[in-house]
Amino acid sequence: MEKEIVGKVEVEIKHLLSAYAAIEKVRKELYWALNYRIRSGEEPVKIFPPDDVKTEILDNGNTVKLTIMDYPSRLQITKKEEKERWTNNITFALRKTKLEVSFDRIFVFVRFYLPVKNTDVDNYDISPIINGIKYSGIIPDDTYKYVSFGFNAAFSKNPKTEIYVIKYNKYLPEILTKILSTF
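Above: the chain's sequence. Below: its structure in token form.
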């Protein structure tokens, strides 16, 4: 029987694995309950505070810019919890602006600042970003009728993600040109 010494107490590996499995099960149950409350409109900041997301309203209310000091996982390794964290952060941040901006249709532009040079930008998962926009309630749904998107990336020693939610109207080309020229 394999044993591990923890402090001065010998513990069988099977007991450690059993305890870990029980803790993981409880964590997943708590996370499910928390996400259920989030999706129903509550902001459980005291239980599970969201990451710091900087929110700015630009272009006379035609654009909302979110800045997150992180970047999403690559598509192949994105875990459910990671997706939910991103979705929840976007949802929280945009709910705060819901009374100030209104969109019927949007263009979402995502700019990644990645700590890796020459990476495939299309391998980063933006679905949690789009889902967070939908769950915030600033658009009716995330189907192609309401949402279009694009993205690009650059190398940075200080990784972050900038998300621009732009009202899909006659000012879109001008706003997008301005965003792209600051890159």
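The first strand starts at residue 3 and ends at 6.
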